Amino acid sequence: MEEQAQRRAEQLALLYDAGLTLNRVLDPHVQLEFLFQIAMKALHADRAQFFGFDEDRNELRYEFGVGHTENIESRLRDLVRRMDDEQSIVAHVARNRLPLNLPDVSADPSWIVFDPKVRSGLWVPVQHEGRLRGVLNVLSTRLNAFTPHDERLLALFSNEASVAMENARLFADLRQRVTELEAVHEISSALRSAQTLDEMLPRLLDKTLAVLETEAGILFHYDVESDTLKKALARGWFTRIPDSLMTGKEGMVARVLETGQVYASEEFVADPRLRASIRPFIPAAWGGVCVPIRTIEAVVGILFVAFKLPRRLEPDEVRLLTTVAEIAGNAIHRMRLHEQTERRLEQIQALRNIDTAITASLDLRVMLNVVLEQITAQLRVDAAAVLLLNPHTQILEYTAGRGFRSPAIERSRLRLGEGYAGQAALDRDLKIVSNISPGEGYARAQLLAGEGFVTYLAVPLVAKGRVKGVLELFHRAALKPDAEWLGFLKSLALQAAIAIDNAGLFDALQRSNVELGLAYESTLEGWSRALDMRDKETEGHTQRVTEMTVRVAAAMGIHDAEMAQVRRGALLHDIGKMGVPDSILLKREPLTEDEWIIMRRHPDFAYELLAPIAHLRPALDIPYCHHENWDGSGYPRGLKGEQIPLAARIFAVVDAWDALLSERPYRAAWSEENVREYLRAQSGQRFDPNVVEVFLRMA
């Protein structure tokens, strides 16, 4: 009795020490090894084993043991028992959740002889809060090695083990969560620092592969609008698969796109979903996981990570991969929104540049060059041209172009309805041609020989309901424009049409202004000729004095902007004589004093006639003031010196010169020398001395 009491005391001490130690150790294998050593010592056992319970598979699998030879240990590692296996002692204990003591294992038909030296055994279930964790058992080479007290003691060891294992599991989960968070943080930081998708996607794939400690992976991009899937980038042996085989929604990726769920493949070459076309490029003994990358709205990509067997992704690794895919989806969504915003801003800036060009210049070719520059840059096409419609011939003619290798396109001339451009203008509809090789519909193949264009678009340029021409786009590769791209193209085409229309309006206005100006000048010249015809003795006088006045005015520094008014004033200098009766104007005898009073009123008549005409009011200086004298003795207002407008002072000298050199009914023409002498004599009296000096040098 004393020996038995001492043994129990030792057992309790060992159990206590086991509890303290187990709760300090967090490695499950270290826990089991320590527990087995204590249990074997307390129960005088020769062997110890633990079978873990897999709840998902409903089976028991050998996990750890002590006391076995290496050969037996190797056999046990492959030992798996289903919970419904009626011939399994371990399954029996697990199902019933009760201990089992076999004094002689050979007497039990369920006993499988894997170690012939084992004679007896004791099995107890390991549970935690009602959940089965596995089965713990000890074995002995002796018969009847274990007593009911040993059974209770092993049950206590089992309880200690379950608590310790649960603590270890919780710690492992916590550590895994921390690892996941660190990995997620690292990947998130890498994604946040990227500025573009091209920069972000390699970081996503490389960081993910680094965290999961593998070298092989691939990213697919899925375009929802076009419903197309293509490879974005690859690492490891995935790079050996041709890009042409990595498109299309087939195989494993198709499954992920259809379900939006993770797809795991135990081994690629054995997977029935593996596409036959890429099977030759897949190495043996590789498996992996395919994870959807989704935004809030839809799946936008697929992340494929591969592992070399016998490695399998643990559930926590799959969870990490799924989290990374979600982060990537949100990052891609934000990046696309950012890129879309940047693109919209560029488009707005492009439209603004065109508006500025339209406002700043009315030169059609300058405007069209700006339009074509913005079109090729924003729409990323290789070349563009504008064909304008000649409204008289109804022919589309080349007007401007950009991006062509040769000038042959400049010979383009198409009738309405001829070729794609002519059809676009006639139908007022966009034409898109994916292959512009010579054939029906493309009328200018020879002009574009050697350009290498593949894609062609023709957009009618319509402003105010009228076709102005056609905008043509050329690209040396396949082009699949989306709705946003086409919408922006139409906006640019509208701007181009507005530019063309504005230039046309300006040209028409300019022509009208020129014609109107010519009409004004012709009218003034007609008036001056009419005056000359009325006063036959001075016929030609007006043209002569006008030309000479303009020359002298230029020499005296009158600006070009004022010269038109000087010319008009000179032409109309005697317009006031229209108010003088013929009996006075054409009288051959000297005028009486009363007649002179009427004659001297012709400057006032000129003022009354011209002042109401806004266009001619600036030209009044000569008709109104050319009879004013430098000393103030002139008429009609008696102006003196520089009070007299310069143009009138110049004209007074020129008029006197021409009049004195001409025959009059009441006197003969003077000689040039006498006229010069007269002008010098009247300098400072009738005439401005400076004007006289300049005039005599020029005469």
SSE-based structural type? alpha+beta
Shape estimate: rod-shaped
Strand order in the largest sheet: 3-2-1-6-5-4
Radius of gyration: 54 Å
Q: Give the number of DSSP strands.
A: 17
Structure write-up:
It is a single chain. With 699 residues, the chain is α+β, with helices and mostly antiparallel strands. The chain is 48% helix and 17% strand. A 6-stranded antiparallel β-sheet has the order 3-2-1-6-5-4, with helices on both faces. The chain has a 6-stranded antiparallel β-sheet with strand order 14-13-12-17-16-15. Helix 5 packs antiparallel against helix 6 and helix 8 packs antiparallel against helix 9. The longest helix is centred in the last third of the chain and has 52 residues. The protein is rod-shaped and about 175 Å long. The model has no long low-confidence stretch (mean pLDDT 80).
Helix and strand topology:
Blueprint: H1 2-22, H2 28-43, E1 47-54, E2 59-66, H3 70-77, E3 80-82, H4 89-96, E4 100-102, E5 120-128, E6 131-140, H5 148-193, H6 197-211, E7 216-223, E8 228-235, H7 251-259, E9 263-265, E10 286-294, E11 299-308, H8 315-360, H9 364-378, E12 383-390, E13 395-402, E14 413-415, H10 419-427, E15 431-433, E16 455-463, E17 466-475, H11 483-534, H12 541-555, H13 560-571, H14 582-585, H15 593-599, H16 602-610, H17 621-625, H18 646-661, H19 672-682, H20 689-698
Antiparallel strand pairs: 1-2, 1-6, 2-3, 4-5, 5-6, 7-8, 7-11, 9-10, 10-11, 12-13, 12-17, 13-14, 15-16, 16-17
Helix pairs in contact: 1-2, 1-5, 2-5, 5-6, 5-8, 6-8, 8-9, 8-11, 9-11, 12-13, 12-18, 18-19
